[in-house]
TrEMBL record:
Biased composition, class Basic and acidic residues, residue ranges: 347-358
Keywords: DNA recombination
Species per Swiss-Prot/TrEMBL record: Streptomyces monticola
Protein name per UniProt: Tyrosine-type recombinase/integrase
Keyword Cytoplasm: no
SUPFAM superfamilies tied to this protein: DNA breaking-rejoining enzymes
Chain spans, region Disordered: 335-372
InterPro entries: DNA_brk_join_enz (IPR011010), Integrase-like_cat_sf (IPR013762), Integrase_catalytic (IPR002104)
Pfam families: Phage_integrase (PF00589)
Domain Tyr recombinase, first and last residues per copy: 156-358
Length: 372
């Protein structure tokens, strides 16, 4: 990271190295932190502040973030403020603030910034505003640190893709590779990064994979976080085994034939999904390409809305539960660590809600049934 005179800005550089290497965060996280620090330094330069003590004016920084376009003033607007559209929304500002908090905590720990900075960015809160699960067994109130500057973010509801939409997208595919991709998103529920990161050696599609040195039963794929050349990144830290059904296995088989026809025996890398129809042939597809495929398929299938990979993942989770799956099963299948993480993914089918009501016996019938 370079400062305005293009010298390496040491404190930030040390921090980012630690984030990336010691704590093993994603490259995208490191980039987001770096961008946050650049914004802070820019603001400090423009307003003549010292970054070490700028935390006392976080409120002003937030205003600046909200209303200053571009990289801090090339495109200065005359009267920034309410009435015009904010340049950065609350979610984006919170991301910047998170990066800056992490950076300042690191700087205080390394004696590069005074300790009172922590009081400026954190305040003491009690544990009562935490979710029940995090409050602990004792029921007593505990004191904890809470970020002082945090903006309300609107809840964004993500809809599931309907089964009809998924089928229409599947039918709109022009290759076996794209059909497999649609199933990996909507039936296996993988994220784009996990899909693009799959290797051929991750798929164990036979009933018995012991010959390959794998004890897992039935057809499955392994979801593993790796540093990939196509930047595909699994959001889950842990690896897990994802069972796949006959439909998915069939799609795999058809894709293997298609891939072989284009690339031959030796063709391509160990990546599962590779370029077949445009150069460089055999190179892994990117995470972005999966989003673009969904866009193209939504359009081609005439869905009238954009069905994203995330909506496909929601469809998978909801279908599992609609078919009688339990919450802990969905959690494991989505590769999630926390029991509450699957909740936003669930969109109960209307008929299931109807059944839930119908199962409750009428009180009158109940009394009649008891016999007088
Ligand atoms: Zn296996």
């Amino acid at each position: 990271m370079l400062d305005e005179e293009c010298r390496v800005f040491e404190p930030a550089d040390r921090f980012l190295r630690e984030v990336r290497l010691a704590r093993g965060r994603a490259e995208s996280t490191t980039k987001a932190y770096a961008h946050a620090i650049v914004l802070l330094l820019l603001w400090c330069t423009i307003t003549g502040r010292d970054w070490r003590t700028a935390a006392r004016d976080m409120g002003l920084f937030i205003l600046w973030l909200r209303w200053t376009p571009g990289r801090g003033g090339q495109h200065r607007i005359v009267v920034p403020g309410p009435g015009t559209k904010a340049v950065r929304g609350n979610r984006r500002i919170n991301q910047v603030l998170t990066g800056i908090r992490m950076f300042l905590v690191h700087a205080v720990g390394a004696n590069e910034a005074p300790a009172w900075v922590l009081e400026q960015i954190y305040e003491l809160g009690d544990s009562l505003d935490l979710p029940l699960e995090a409050q602990g067994e004792s029921g007593g109130m505990r004191v904890r640190l809470r970020a002082r500057h945090h903006l309300q973010e609107p809840e964004t509801d993500i809809d599931r893709a309907s089964d009809e939409e998924v089928v229409a997208m599947f039918l709109a595919c022009r290759s076996a590779r794209d059909r497999l991709t649609v199933l990996l998103l909507s039936r296996v529920g993988l994220r784009p990064g996990q899909t693009a990161g799959l290797r051929r050696s991750d798929s164990h599609l036979m009933m018995d994979s012991r010959a390959l040195g794998c004890e897992a039963e039935g057809a499955h794929v392994h979801i593993i976080r790796r540093q990939n050349e196509n930047d595909a990144w699994s959001k889950s830290k842990q690896s897990w085994v994802m069972p796949v059904d006959f439909l998915v296995v069939q799609a795999f088989d058809q894709y293997v034939i298609e891939r072989h026809e284009v690339l031959g025996d030796e063709g391509g890398s160990d990546f599962l999904l590779v370029n077949l129809f445009r150069p460089p042939c055999g190179a892994p597809i990117t995470t972005d390409a999966i989003g673009e495929l969904c866009e193209a398929l939504s359009r081609r299938a005439g869905l009238g809305r954009l069905v994203t990979p995330r909506m496909c993942r929601h469809a998978m989770a909801s279908n599992v539960v609609d078919a009688g799956g339990k919450l802990d099963e969905v959690q494991a299948l989505l590769g999630q660590k926390h029991p509450s993480s699957p909740r936003p993914y669930l969109h109960p089918k209307e008929s299931r809600l109807r059944d839930a009501i119908d199962r409750v016996p009428s009180p009158r019938l109940h009394r009649e049934g008891e016999g007088r």
